[in-house]
Amino acid sequence: MGTAPEFADSVLLPGHDVPLGRYTTVRRLLPHRERRMIGAWCFVDHFGPDDVSGRPGMQVPPHPHSGLQTVTWLAEGLVEHRDSLGSQQVIAPGQLNLMTSGHGIAHAEHTPPEHPDGMHGLQLWIALPEEARHGPARFEHHAALPSRQDGDVTVTVVIGGFGDMRSPAGVHSPLLGAELVHRAATAYTLDLDPAFEHGVLVMSGGATVAGTPLSPGSLLYVGGGRDRLDIAVTGPARLFLLGGEPFDEPLVMWWNFVGRSHDDIVRARAQWMAGEPYGTERFGIVDGCDAGPLPAPELPSVRLKARDRHGHTH
Prior knowledge:
8-stranded antiparallel sheet, Pirin
């Protein structure tokens, strides 16, 4: 705990735009060439703020997942989740939808027909460790999460624990996900767990984190071994703090699957594409969706290689 960390330096991870469904574009921040993971956090998409007045908003048809958990977190708008367990849940800002795929699940996410004008939020994945990735699927909705007001900053613990607050969400590795909402310009220091590596995502406003100026839609990796983090904002701002113990299992991430080998991915793809509709045996059926399930893309012509959190192949 007191030794120098392997990754102590800050690394700025700018996002790139990726279409999500027909109507939504997201900024993908993880995985990144410079940093594949933060703890078990292996995938981070930031969308909005978008004006969806008179527009469909998010419309993502049924698709599969395996080997991961999905986290949906909103700052604005509404999203309806449906999955092959029979779950149906509309999420609003300040609420958490957490879906654990285990061996396999299918789900869809849609903005309801009657919705607010704005949409802004995060879609994140958590890699499941070996002992959890073959388990059963489950879905959790948490309408209330622990939060506290520290001066002009409201801290909400979405995943894991922070100080004396702990989220009720069920995860499988030591993790942290917390929203920091600032009402006005302020500067302060966060106490951190030095066993964790951390990252800070700016959702809105301007911030300087560990001496690095950040604009909305950027993620700063701040490494492990830190017991504090200096943050300053220039006015109202919304940040999201990610953290976790370094995840040591090499992963193969392809499309919506997180596996350990090329063969894992080939098997998952084949089992999704089998049946009518897709994926019936392993992934199940998402009822109540107008759109049909998404077909998987073609696999690349070369074998997929497992990569560790540094990006090294195995």
